Amino acid sequence: MSIEIIPYQDEYKEEFQQLNYEWLNKYDLLEDYDVLILSDPQKTVLNNGGYIYLAQDTQTKQIIGTIGILKHDSTKCELIKMCVKPGYQQQGVARRLIEQCLKQIREQYPEIKKISLCSNSLLKAAIHLYKHYGFKYAQNEHRHLVTADIYMELQL
């Protein structure tokens, strides 16, 4: 399997939405905030200085994973919408997505001092991966997601 990490483009909007709706619904975690982000990623993420990356299977051209960077202000951003399609999980796809985001943040926004993320305790593999990259449990500063019972931060 060969995977390429590519920047989001509107032509992939449906796949971005579908992948995220699938996992959010599977775990009964879909909230209004998710719908807002997913309905117009250009407006809610990209136009505000953020990024979205997609993992693409180079053989099938299918989008198999997503992740985003939501910029909050000049010193803080948040990782959002990380997911990998079932069948491609546990193969390093999420690692590559996270590494792309960390690289982008360090290169594009050297002033960023803190990366946060919200998750749910049901998502054990994702939480383990976040810990691997140095994210630590923290007090949630802004509870914009009711179903997110995990808040983590990475100090840069």
TrEMBL record:
Pfam families documented for this protein: Acetyltransf_1
Superkingdom per UniProt: Eukaryota
GO molecular function: N-acetyltransferase activity
InterPro entries in the record: Acyl_CoA_acyltransferase, GNAT_dom, NAT_camello-type
Positions of the N-acetyltransferase domain: 3-156
Keyword Glycoprotein: no
CDD domains (alphabetical): NAT_SF
Transmembrane segments: none
Keywords, comma-separated and alphabetical: Transferase
Protein name: N-acetyltransferase domain-containing protein
